[in-house]
Structures are given as C-alpha cells and as structure tokens.
C-alpha cells in the first residue's frame, strides 16, 4: 500500500516531545523521517517509564512512542565533519523540524539565511516556547511554565487563592503534544502550498500561543463574564472533575441544552426547577449555590453507568480511567486503538494509537524507534552519497560522536 505521505523527506532535529511527536505523525503516515540525535542521545531517552522500572536509554516509553517509523543518526554538530553531514542532509530534505531553544542552530553556523541558501525549497518548522520574535523570544520554557503562560493555570488547583501550594501542571506532556500536532498541521499545509509556489518557508510555532488558542473560551469567559473559580479548590463549581460512588468523571455540561439533558437524567430535582438554570449566564454566576447538591447526587452514581446515560443524551463527559481501564475499554478494543510494536531491546509492548483514522491511508508503525546511531552508515551512504571510505573518514573524525555503534 502506498501511504499518503510516501516520498516526503523530513529531517528531524528535535528532542523530548513536541518536535518528536510532530515527526512521528508524519513518519507513521509514510514520510521518510530521519531523526538526528547528539552523540549522547535525545534527552527523552532518560525519561520513563521503563520496563521493570530499570532506566535504559533504549527502553524509555516516552522515547519509544514518539519516535516510531523513523530512522536515526547521531551527529556532533560542534564538529566540522558533523556540520558537513548535516548540510548534506538539509539538501536531501523537504522539511526540517527543530524544537531547540531559539538561536541554537544559528550558534552552530546554521542561520536562517544559510539554511535557505543550502535548500531554497525547504520547509523549516521551528517550535519554541514563546516564538522566534518578540520580548520573550529568548525566555526558556517547559511544560510547567508554558501551561501557566498559556492560561492552563486558570483551571489547575494552584489557580485558587484558597490553596497554599506551588504551581502544578497537567499530567504528562500535554503542552508538548498539543504543540507537536499543531506544528504537523501547519507544516503539512506549507507542503501543499509549496506544491504551487515551489518556495520554502519558515514556520514559527509558539507553544504558548498553541495553548492560548486552546484556552480562549476560558480566557474570554473570565474577562467578559467576570467569572472566576476562586471559591473552589480545583475545578469550576458544579462541573469538571466530579466524584462518583466508584471513581471520578469529568463533566462538561456547559451549553444550555447539555445542562437541560443533565437535569432530565437527574430526574428534574426540585432545586433545579427554575428554568433560569438553563441559561448559561445565570449558571455562570449562581453555580456555587447548587454545587454541593449536584456533588451529592453524583456521589451516589456509578461511574460507568452515569457516563453511558449522559453520553447517550449527548452530554460531554468522560470517566477518569486507570491504565487498566483504558486497556480493557470496549470502544478502544473495537477501534483497535492499541497495537503491538516489537523493539530489539525493549521487546514487544502495547503502544497507543493515533488521534484519527483514515480508511484510504491508515497510519501504521513501519519500524520501532531507532537505536542510538542505528542508521548512521545507511543514511550517510545511501541518502547523501558518502562512499564507504568517506563514511569511515567521517566516523574517525568524530562526526557521529562516541556511540556504541
């Protein structure tokens, strides 16, 4: 089967989550993605979880998941030989993805103008905390700081003045994954545009801007409705994370018709008889009055039972699942969401699938994540035309650093 992105060549000089996930989305759809790592490897190799909780650079679940279907090469870009190999790979590529700090490539001698001169047709996608220009262009950022800079902090426990605690972030790497998928969408659009113009371009992805875009309803609600959650510890009143008799679920009956359906499923209790409760503006300012009653009602329901009852009525909600719950979920099993990938060192493991399905060109894992430096010789000899003699010269000169390969 010819995959939808067959023939697209992508050079990925990234680490951790945002850049690698962007590359993975292309690789699993058939693009030829070459991942460049420093000799010590992507930092994600040091992050777990690991099988049996034993750290190993080739067995990090974070790295294995975000780097499927790619080939991998190590290059020491601080050395002339490594820079020369990188330059030749730039000539090979259609796309360069980079999520290092702003100016990192320029410090290595690869300024924007230099990259454009090497390959005028290149789509150069940059993912940085606050973008490549502006007063915060050089400010460092990570999951915690960007979550709060992007207004996610407005819905987190540390938002409330009633809680004496350090700021917290959402679980996992949600900022990184959202930024990665946004970068992939924009890069794909630029590739389609290049088909008409033939010209390359620079794409500037601000991770803060990505999160601000996702949080715009919360931002505008706080500004124009003057709504705030300071009276509750970690969620909006009568909504959000709610405890059931056997677990938790997240309720999002925000729209009027959703709240009306919730009221009917509850049996139209007398304390919700006033139809003003079906008006969002009224609920926004009076929800704390009914929050204890709704919480008490929800505490008597079983998580799965009330989930299905409300879902059948179109009410947005979802159960808070354990990993075991997810692996045993009937819907995920029906859609074959989880799939097995066999890695030469990590063994056969179940991996999460993709946030979409396409019948004509389904995504697939064509190979496991690369071992560190696994494809050095293959890539340099096959893709950029090094002879066996030249490859050995590059190897001796330290272009690949000191890896085990």
Task: List the keywords.
405 residues, alpha/beta, Rossmann fold, formyl-coa transferase, domain 3, 2 domains, six-stranded parallel sheet, three-stranded antiparallel sheet, 38% helix, 13% strand, elongated
Can you lay out the helices and strands and say which pair or pack?
Elements: E1 9-13, H1 18-27, E2 32-37, H2 61-66, E3 71-74, H3 80-92, E4 95-98, H4 104-107, H5 112-118, E5 123-128, H6 143-149, H7 174-197, E6 201-206, H8 207-214, H9 216-224, E7 240-244, E8 247-251, H10 256-265, H11 280-298, H12 303-312, E9 317-319, H13 323-327, H14 330-334, E10 339-343, E11 347-351, H15 376-383, H16 388-397
Helix pairs in contact: 1-7
Give a written overview of the molecule.
- The structure is a single chain.
- The chain has 16 helices and eleven strands.
- The chain is of the alpha/beta class and 405 residues long.
- It folds into two domains: 9-214 and 335-397, Crotonobetainyl-coa:carnitine coa-transferase, domain 1 (Rossmann fold, 3-Layer(aba) Sandwich); 238-321, formyl-coa transferase, domain 3 (2-Layer Sandwich).
- It has a six-stranded parallel β-sheet with strand order 3-2-1-4-5-6, sandwiched between helices. A three-stranded antiparallel β-sheet has the order 7-8-9, with helices on one face. Strands 10-11 form a two-stranded antiparallel ribbon.
- α1 (18-27) packs across α7 (174-197).
- The chain is elongated and about 85 Å long.
């Amino acid at each position: 089967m010819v995959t939808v992105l067959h023939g697209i060549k992508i050079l990925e000089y990234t680490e951790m989550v945002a850049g690698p996930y962007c590359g993975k989305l292309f690789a699993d759809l058939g693009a030829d993605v070459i991942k460049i790592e420093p000799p010590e490897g992507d930092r994600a190799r040091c992050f777990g979880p690991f099988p049996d909780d034993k750290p190993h650079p080739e067995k990090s679940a974070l790295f294995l998941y975000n780097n499927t279907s790619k080939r991998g090469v190590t290059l020491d870009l601080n050395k002339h030989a490594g820079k020369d190999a990188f330059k030749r790979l730039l000539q090979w590529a259609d796309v360069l993805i980079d999520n290092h700090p702003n100016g990192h490539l320029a410090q290595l001698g690869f300024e924007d103008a230099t990259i454009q001169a090497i390959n005028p047709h290149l789509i150069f996608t940059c993912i940085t905390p606050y973008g490549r220009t502006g007063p915060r262009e050089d400010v460092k950022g990570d999951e915690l700081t960007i979550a709060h800079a992007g207004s996610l902090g407005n819905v987190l426990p540390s938002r409330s003045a009633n809680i004496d605690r350090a700021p917290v972030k959402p679980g996992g790497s949600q900022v990184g994954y959202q930024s990665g998928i946004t970068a992939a969408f924009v890069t794909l659009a630029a590739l389609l545009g290049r088909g008409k113009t033939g010209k390359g371009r620079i794409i500037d992805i601000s991770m803060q801007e990505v999160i601000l875009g996702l949080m715009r309803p919360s931002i505008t609600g706080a500004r124009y409705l003057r709504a705030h959650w300071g009276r509750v510890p970690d969620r909006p009143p009568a909504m959000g994370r709610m405890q059931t008799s056997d677990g938790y679920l997240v309720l999002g009956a925000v729209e009027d018709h959703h709240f009306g359906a919730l009221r009917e499923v509850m049996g139209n209790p007398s304390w919700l008889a006033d139809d003003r409760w079906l008006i969002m503006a009224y609920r926004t300012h009076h929800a704390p009055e009914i929050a204890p009653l709704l919480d008490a009602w929800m505490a008597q329901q079983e998580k799965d039972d009330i989930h299905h009852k409300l879902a059948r009525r179109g009410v947005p909600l979802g159960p808070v699942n354990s990993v075991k719950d997810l692996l045993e979920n009937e819907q995920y099993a029906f859609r074959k969401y989880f799939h097995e990938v066999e890695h030469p060192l990590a063994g056969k493991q179940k991996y999460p699938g993709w946030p979409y399905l396409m019948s004509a060109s389904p995504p697939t894992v064509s190979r496991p994540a690369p071992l560190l430096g696994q494809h050095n010789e293959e890539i340099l000899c096959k893709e950029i035309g090094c002879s066996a003699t030249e490859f050995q010269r590059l190897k001796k000169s330290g272009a690949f650093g000191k890896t085990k390969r």
